[in-house]
User: Which sequence fits this backbone?
DNA sequence: TGTACATCAGTGAACGCGCGTTCACTGATGTAC
DNA sequence: TGTACATCAGTGAACGCGCGTTCACTGATGTAC
């Protein structure tokens, strides 16, 4: 009993990855509206029929992209932050986080857009998230945890609220990423580093 | 010379509004993927052919929705804030802004999603924005302007950066709105008012 | 006021196209003896 | 090692469906005398 599915051959697994790569690339580059099976297959260098050997249907393919591609390494990097508590300075680490967050959220925008364009898919994705306890809120929690650790080390004011600080810092980066994508690059004349420094200075000023 | 187009009859204008209402309602409720001409016409209680009497094509209709429906009264309310500088307390006004911002951004999410799902449309929308100088960044500017006014009144610390404070406050609300829409209502157990209070307390603590 | 015509807002039915999906098939790889 | 068969990954061509769009038309409203 248990796993019915026989282990896929190495070649088949590679093909699967090529399809997922192609799907997420097309979505990011050309948008959900242009992410047709034809276009995805063309990008992957495969026939459309092959997509259906690896995924039940288009919805299954998209859900898999959301499940396997979205988490990304950003949350992981934030989670690793707690181990760095006490090193460098809080200020420097937060600036690093902010500088990383903006490009990360910019990459994310088309995927998020695709999710909101298909509420049925979004609903199924939510089910999956709540079943596993995963989700983007983990980024906030991870950063808050790091800030809590710094607080216990006496390197962050007692009265500061780690979770609120995290929401402010990442929220500003999130919005900035969307504004840049939405209004165009010209908004990015203020450099990313400068933006990060201003945010952190304001948050840590006492 | 100038306006070639004859003034539309009152009835025609009403129909136009019904179409725009229907289009934005369908997009918000059922997502871009389900926002077909058939569905929009059905919602408006009109035939599909009528859509084409009022808009050149579907793209024209969507662009018009983005142009005429997105700005909303939220930016206006923020712009009106400057006149209220010196009244109430800075703390109370900012809490009010934050409490307003979350539901506003939640409403906005499906539209923003639709924009990112069609990069060609987004590009044309951007052109329009940069031609008129409008855009969502105005919300940030409006809030920053208010904070600057309070600063001149001596009700906000000299060293505070109005624009950075605005980016932090609205950014946190923006991200929270997306998280709620993306992960589901359960995130909203912390009440909106409580969330707003925490943000403002952290930003104004000295 | 009544009559004849023009304009206008809106429609039902049809159109072609491109989409997601499936089918019968092929050639390569693995297995048995 | 060679031969016969089974399995597997992948394909070209076709399918039906629903989409955006257009057409020839209708009935209501406005205008002229």
Assistant:
């Amino acid at each position: 009993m248990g796993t019915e599915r026989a282990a896929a051959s190495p070649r088949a697994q590679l093909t699967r990855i090529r399809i997922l790569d192609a799907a997420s690339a097309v979505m990011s580059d050309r948008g959900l509206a242009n992410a047709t099976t034809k276009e995805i297959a063309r990008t992957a260098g495969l026939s459309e029929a092959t997509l259906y050997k690896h995924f039940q249907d288009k919805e299954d393919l998209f859900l898999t992209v959301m499940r396997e591609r979205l988490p990304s390494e950003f949350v992981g990097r934030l989670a690793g932050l707690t181990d760095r508590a006490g090193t460098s300075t809080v200020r420097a680490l937060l600036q690093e986080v902010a500088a990383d967050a903006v490009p990360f959220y910019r990459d994310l925008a088309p995927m998020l857009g695709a999710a909101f364009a298909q509420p049925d898919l979004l609903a199924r994705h939510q089910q999956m998230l709540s079943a596993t306890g995963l989700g983007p809120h983990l980024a906030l929690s991870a950063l808050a945890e790091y800030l809590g650790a710094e607080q216990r080390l006496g390197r962050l004011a007692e009265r500061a609220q780690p979770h609120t600080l995290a929401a402010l810092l990442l929220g500003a980066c999130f919005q900035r990423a969307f504004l840049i994508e939405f209004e165009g690059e010209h908004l990015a004349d203020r450099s990313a580093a400068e933006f990060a420094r201003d945010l952190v200075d304001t948050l840590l000023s006492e």
About this structure: Residues 1-5 of chain B have pLDDT under 50 and may be disordered. Residues 9, 11-12, 15, 46-50, 53 of chain B lie near DNA strand C (CB under 10 Å from a C1'). Residues 22 and 44 of chain B are 5 Å apart (CA to CA). The first helix of chain B runs from residue 10 to 30.
